From TrEMBL:
The keyword Ribonucleoprotein does not apply. This is Molecular chaperone IbpA. Residues 30-143 form the SHSP domain. Belongs to the small heat shock protein (HSP20) family. Pfam families: HSP20. PROSITE patterns: SHSP (PS01031). PANTHER family: PTHR47062, SMALL HEAT SHOCK PROTEIN IBPA. Keywords: Stress response. SUPFAM superfamilies: HSP20-like chaperones. InterPro entries: A-crystallin/Hsp20_dom, ACD_IbpA/B, HSP20-like_chaperone. Gene3D superfamilies: 2.60.40.790.
Amino acid sequence: MRHFDLSPLYRSTVGFDRLFSMMDQLANVDNGGSSYPPYNIERTGENAYRITMAVAGFGQKDLHIEVKENTLTIRGEKVAEEGKERGEVLYRGIAERSFERRFQLADHVEVRGAELENGLLHVDLVRQIPEALKPRTIEISTGGRTAKVIDQKAA
């Protein structure tokens, strides 16, 4: 297993301690954990991300997506279709077992939508930074100004 040293990233970023701690935990997990179904996480824009999960054999009614308290949960459970006859399976290479994947979302990350296409589930995420948290420019005044007196009462 590969080990990645994330300590240089700690020095150049502020406020991402939780993210790096989670990445350290994931890197240190033994291979006993389930890797089914496989997935990709990609950046599609400055504040946009996409999780793509391979869910071959699962239909729209078999998949459930839920967001609760900064946790995205994707569950798949194959619903047995009654009355549908299936032939004898000689080899089963397409896994149809139930799964549950959880993703920790950073603050202000919202799920924008999900799409099932060609056996791939795409979940689009956007980071929406509130106006109060965005950087703003502060005007610097010069020392040559005189202070304005708004309301001065006679003593």
